[in-house]
Amino acid sequence: MSTATSTPTSETPKPGTPKKAPKKSFFTPGRLIAAGVILVVLILMFFSTKILTGKEATEAAPGTFSPQSYAQEKFDSEIAPDIVKRATELAVVQKAIAADPAAAAKKYGVVSGSSPAVYSVKFTGTAGKPEANGQLPVTVPGMPADIKVLVQTGPAINGTAVRDATGKVQFSQFKNQIDYQNVGAELNKQVKDKVLANVDPASLAGKKVAAVGAFSLINPSAYIITPVQIGEAK
């Protein structure tokens, strides 16, 4: 009587082979609970986060430097009054520059490092037609015919003449170049908001105007002045 022997199949483990542990599901109760906790935390963080827009977005967080606040505080209290106080008749400044630029800068201007001198000036003249670039030409008695006198009226106010005119706003006072540049931009915004907001350049054409402002001597044939005061001459 013969004894039948069984032949191992691929499904039958060989003797001595350890059994494979069953695969664990990723979605175990522990992991599901942890994921739920994280989701709840994220939702709470979203609803507790304040999204800043408009004016709030431009203001610095408490304890940080704000170029906007600096400009708002300094423009009326220090910078504009100092430019008015320092202002010399434009024709006088021009003659001094023509005679001796270095001496003129020392007597009437403010020089910061290697930058061109910045002058505080005042003048009365006849306004022309506003130019497309936002500059108002003014014919000033005593000024040479080959030198244009242009007053910035916006909407864009360029340069840093207002920032640099007094010598009291120095790079060393700020943490970095960005803050220093932003202060210049914010002071120009003060000019737009407080000096030019109620000025209609087109209505001044052909009229006598009086202005006080500052300019940087970059182009000797065009004095581009940023005003801290401007209006019809009385």
From TrEMBL:
Short name of one Pfam family: DUF2291
Gene3D superfamilies associated with the record: Envelope glycoprotein gp160, DUF2291, alpha/beta domain, Envelope glycoprotein gp160, DUF2291, helical domain
Residue spans of biased composition, Low complexity class: 1-14
Keyword Ligase applies: no
Keywords, comma-separated and alphabetical: Membrane, Transmembrane, Transmembrane helix
Span list, region Disordered: 1-23
Record's keyword annotation contains Transmembrane: yes
TM ranges: 26-47
The name this protein goes by in its record: DUF2291 domain-containing protein
Organism: Arthrobacter hankyongi
